[in-house]
Specification:
alpha+beta, 2 domains, two-stranded parallel ribbon, 3 helices
């Protein structure tokens, strides 16, 4: 069975519930941009039980904040502004 699901802003807790509800296995997750962070977060929290493969396409991984050990990160104010833009008007912020 092949199913294509596009998940943009669903709460993360629903991702696992959706896979279980549909009884999907051997799922291939494909994430572009911030979608890559969602995949990384899902795998870290729920493991690979139903997942066959994951593809990260031009992904932004979860840790973006500027710190001493991440000198290429974003300053806190800019990071928050970017995250707020994603949450309030994702199509315009892409």
């Amino acid at each position: 069975m092949v199913a294509v699901l596009q998940v943009r802003t669903a709460p993360r807790a629903r991702h696992r519930a959706l896979l279980e509800h549909l009884d999907l296995s051997d799922v291939i997750l494909i994430g572009h941009s911030v979608g890559g962070a969602e995949i990384a977060r899902y795998l870290a929290r729920h493991g690979e039980n139903r997942i066959a493969r994951a593809a990260f396409i031009s992904s932004t991984l979860p840790f973006l904040k500027l710190t001493d050990d991440n000198p290429e990160g974003l300053p806190e104010a800019r990071l928050q502004a970017t995250l707020n833009a994603f949450q309030t008007d994702r199509p315009s912020s892409a």
